[in-house]
Amino acid sequence: MFLLSGTPYLRVKLPPQRRQTRTPMTMPDTTAAQTNQDFIACWNEILTPKWIRFRHLLSGNGQRHSDLVLARFGVKPGDKVLDIGCGFGETCLEIGRLVGPSGGVDGLDCTDAFLEIANRERDEAGLSQVRYLVGDAQVYPLPAAHYDVAFARFGVMFFESAVRALRNTHRALTPDGKVCLIVWRSMADNPAWGEAKRAVLELLPPPAGGATCGPGPFSWADEDTDRRMLAAAGFPNVEMFERVDADVCVGRTIDEAVDYQILVGPSGEVVREAGEEGKRRLPEIRERLGALMRRYLRDDGVYMPSSSWAIVAKKR
Ligand SMILES: C[S@@+](CC[C@H](N)C(=O)[O-])C[C@H]1O[C@@H](n2cnc3c(N)ncnc32)[C@H](O)[C@@H]1O
Q1: Which of 60, 114, 118, 293 could bridge 89 with an S-S bond, Cβ 3.0-4.6 Å?
Q2: Is the dihedral of CA 22, 180, 8, 138 positive or negative?
Q3: 172 within domain boundaries
Q4: What pLDDT score was predicted for residue 314?
């Protein structure tokens, strides 16, 4: 879950002018369309194979968090729901069952391959109240004042501008509508990722460039920043801001957990950024990560602690 130099929760390095910005509230902003193209290309070209390979872990991790809070988001039969950055659509199906045939769920995502799978699984599940929209959440022409609930599980952290996407969403909500988000807390609060990164940093230098404020798994880690982003998007009225802790499965075996950490987790970024040295020391790194993963091995896989925020904010 750390991406651009090739991992799904990517940490994306862009020049300063491309980093996440806060802009005043307006109608959907078409200038965002161009700047977000790199991120969308990254999802479609770099992340898709990894995401499909590790779907059982990535979606499974997400589900452990959404299972703990979805009922509290208060989705009702008949509701119209937007699922932003819906990925393979698992949450769309789940919410589709909650809203029933009189409601509707629109899953919006920018990655074609995910939505192909999502469409197939929706048909298999026979949930015609669920449909999928391909596009950029920042600028997608959503119907005005249409949705009762906008939901996003681990989605908004990866938008080039979450504020733009939320502002677009704000327009699409009914006056009594609300946005319900699940986002990762900080790397320090997520040993599932942070411990592996720390282990690799004992062998390799830290990536150059320091902190970024752009898209990435931990870009919603700070409560004050989140509240300010929500307010900038038109959601000053935050009803729920709660910590959710869950042990997540990072691999069914030690080998899979090591692959997952290196190919998807932030420790992979350290390896890639180290270039030749990273390649040369890979066997040693795998050994070190294997030893760490063994400490968390249970009967059915490697489970490590993780932590998210569950957030609900009203349109008015
Ligand atoms: C971490 S995944 C979460 C997927 C899903 N919500 C889940 O919990 O399993 C983030 C998703 O956001 C999508 N995404 C990233 N940028 C987007 C954008 N600008 N517009 C729409 N979807 C976007 C990606 O394609 C990906 O499916």
Answers
A1: 118
A2: negative
A3: yes
A4: 98
Half-sphere exposure in the Cβ direction for 135 (13 Å, CA):
17
Evaluate: CB of 168 within 6 angstroms of ligand 1: no
Ligand 1 mean position, distance from CA 101 (Å) = 25
Q: The tokens of 191 are what?
A: 């040993």
For helices 266-273 and 282-294, angle between their N-to-C axes, nearest 10 degrees: 160
**Taking the model in full, what pTM does it have?**
0.90
Chain center to CA of 94: 17
Distance 74 CA to ligand 1 centre (A): 22
Instruction: List the one residue out of 179, 248, 188 whose CA is nearest residue 218.
Output: 188
- For residue 42, the model assigns a pLDDT of 82
In the chain, which residue ranges form alpha helices assigned H by DSSP? 31-35, 37-42, 48-53, 55-69, 90-99, 112-125, 162-172, 191-201, 223-232, 254-263, 266-273, 276-280, 282-294
Whether 287 is covered by a domain: the verdict is no
Residue 88 belongs to what domain range? 3-9+31-186+210-248+307-314
> Does a structural domain hold residue 157?
yes
Distance, in Å, from the CA atom of 63 to the CA atom of 250, rounded to the nearest integer, reads 13
Q: What is the CATH number of the domain that holds 97?
A: 3.40.50.150
Number of domains in the chain: 1
Query: Strand 10-11 to strand 80-84: parallel, antiparallel, or no bridges (unpaired)?
Result: unpaired
User: Is residue 180 included in any domain, yes or no?
Assistant: yes
Which segments in the chain show pLDDT lower than 70? 1-35, 209-214
